[in-house]
Amino acid sequence: MHSIITITTDFGPGNKGIGVMHAVIQRICPDVHVINLAQDVPGFDVRAGARLLEAIAFVPAAAHICVVDPGVGTKRRALILITKRGDALVGPDNGVLIPATNSLGGIVKAFEVTNPTWMLQPVSAIFHGRDVFAPTAAHIAAGKNPADAGSAIDSKTLAPAPFPEAKYRHQAIEAEVIDMNSYGNVFLNIRAEEMHKLATIGNTIKLSAGANQILLPYLRTFGEVPVNSPVIIDDDFGRIEVAVNQGNFAEALGIDRGQEIILRVTLTGAD
Amino acid sequence: MHSIITITTDFGPGNKGIGVMHAVIQRICPDVHVINLAQDVPGFDVRAGARLLEAIAFVPAAAHICVVDPGVGTKRRALILITKRGDALVGPDNGVLIPATNSLGGIVKAFEVTNPTWMLQPVSAIFHGRDVFAPTAAHIAAGKNPADAGSAIDSKTLAPAPFPEAKYRHQAIEAEVIDMNSYGNVFLNIRAEEMHKLATIGNTIKLSAGANQILLPYLRTFGEVPVNSPVIIDDDFGRIEVAVNQGNFAEALGIDRGQEIILRVTLTGAD
Amino acid sequence: MHSIITITTDFGPGNKGIGVMHAVIQRICPDVHVINLAQDVPGFDVRAGARLLEAIAFVPAAAHICVVDPGVGTKRRALILITKRGDALVGPDNGVLIPATNSLGGIVKAFEVTNPTWMLQPVSAIFHGRDVFAPTAAHIAAGKNPADAGSAIDSKTLAPAPFPEAKYRHQAIEAEVIDMNSYGNVFLNIRAEEMHKLATIGNTIKLSAGANQILLPYLRTFGEVPVNSPVIIDDDFGRIEVAVNQGNFAEALGIDRGQEIILRVTLTGAD
């Protein structure tokens, strides 16, 4: 039983599909609050979707739908993942749900959705958001037992997370760009709590992206450097972010969305 | 009396006008669920708006507002169309509401909105979404009689649908592109149920668009062809869609949004 | 106590941050209606944000959050502004809230938010929308006394509005472009009620933008001029707008978003 259902998709903001999912949910569970979380996941980008879904750590325990689903209509499973915190994550078995479960205490139960009475019939081959995931989340929010949705599955058989966690070395971190936003800010697979073990606010960081190397300060916020200067900060959802104050970091260093690069962080002492 | 009001506009997602319409509705009918359906109708594109509004077939009977209204402030009428299913469609008399009524049992009553007490006064010359359509839908959702909004009109006098239905020939269909999405998927004025009379999943289809001719399979979903291969499928709202798996069909064939082209579909036997 | 909270941001439509703010509000004040007003404020554009926020004049008295906040994490104050109409505007002290208060009877009380129990802890250095403004607005909507949020401040110390009002001369108005929309419509800092003192619907207006001079009619709506012709009208939120019917005025005259230009309006008599 949940009072909130969140929706994360790669449909693009303003897409009718999100509204139709609202309507499907409303019919099954009229009193739930439906909250649009990210609708701006780049199309088919499981990696970016997984990072954006991590935002549910800032939502109370709820039913969370994520539809970033290039394999819709193929044999990939439809999942319900129950977290230790009490969330139910509903979406495809392509790894997109996995990183978000880590900060919610991990997965305590996993189910494959196969019960046709939990679906909107006839089930379309291409829009499981409407026909499978939305009704499933609504049934769970309404208090039904997730075990009735299908069969329990071993969480070891789940498709893995679409990105690894960074490798934390002595005074260095080997990381990857896991997402970028429209301002060209670059998000890394570094957890802020791990960064804090190696670096202190005020330190200077050496960042290597391909052939480029730059020095930049590790601070608390964009506004602490001049306009157009780079800065590395804790992002607002528990990871590490590199940005240019009121500018475009990704463009400045030629980083493409989705491109996998290795970033080595070297501490050169407090500035 | 309806528990849901949907809003479809060409304002663009995140536009303040949609929020202001919510507020107007809330004041008149505080308990209704307002659902944003499509907000990404291309500006002034009555044809695309009409197709997107067909999605209301997947919403329970409700009051539906559609604001794609290049003639706002001119003499075009403001309409309420009551469908056999029990919906009330509210919007301008430019054809945009018509295709959606077809899958709801057709129009059983039509009214012109002229009653000033149903409007937000003073009525702006350019934002009837806020001043006419939103309050009208809210009054209907609150249980008022649509006949009190103005005068009954003959549905034969309504502006026609902005696109024809496809012509179904022996083994061929003469169709039109009625919409495209941001992935370059192309939507045709073919009803899936008519397609099923001519073609079976697994058939190969010859598609002609201007000077271009290609062969492509008729399948259930994108993922059944390799990445970058074209495919023709039933879309998720009852029509036929042509796409390239994780690619851009419209770009590949040089099809512009809104361009009217003739597509001839020829069955060449099962593949 | 308010039944509605509106949210205006420069996050971009579909951004997860907006959904997370909904969730924070819901937890504190479960029964309030959260309405997304503008989410399409250009990034960091305090001027455009201030104009878009003026739309709250069309929402009943409510708690209104505005997050256009390039100074987040620096020493700029977090504000609550109480209007004569009974609204509570919540946002940064950078001028973005000021123009909207003018049509709501002006500011009757102002507070700086400093009470840590009104915030989501720990407060992020870069997302005060979630950690300061959303919970503050929710507490006010739930009926808490704004005075408990921190300390009363003198409204004379507030950062000024990001744009001046136009200068109204004899038969001429010296104005500025305060915003543009995606259609290239240009919004001026002229109040419609002041325009009405100088010009009557049907007059011809001479408009000077840099080296360009054009004549255009002052009418009620776009549709009263031919497609691709320019027109000057009252916009739908109390200011003056210049547009090309179904075309792009800003492009035609080479006006960039945010560019400050002087427009002189000369009446040459009725057409």
What is this structure's SSE topology?
The structure is a homotrimer of 271-residue chains.
Chain A (H helix, E strand, L loop, with lengths): L3 E6 L6 H13 L4 E4 L9 H8 L9 E5 L10 E6 L4 E5 L5 H5 L4 E7 L14 H14 L8 E3 L14 E3 L2 E4 L1 E4 L5 E6 H7 L4 E7 L2 E6 L12 E5 L4 E6 L4 H4 L10 E8 L1
Parallel strand pairs in A: 1-2, 1-3, 3-5
Antiparallel strand pairs in A: 4-5, 4-6, 6-7, 8-9, 9-16, 10-11, 11-15, 12-13, 12-16, 14-15
Question: How would you characterize this protein structure?
Answer:
3 copies of one chain form a homotrimer. The first copy, chain A, is of the alpha+beta class and 271 residues long. Chain A has 2 domains: 154 residues, S-adenosyl-l-methionine hydroxide adenosyltransferase, N-terminal (Rossmann fold); 99 residues, Beta Barrel (Elongation Factor Tu (Ef-tu), domain 3), CATH 2.40.30.90. Helix content of chain A is 19%, strand content 31%. Chain A has a 7-stranded mixed β-sheet with strand order 2-1-3-5-4-6-7, sandwiched between helices. In chain A, strand 10 and strand 11 form a beta hairpin. Chain A is elongated. Chain A starts with a strand and ends with a strand. At the A-B interface, helix 1 of A face strand 1 and strand 2 of B.
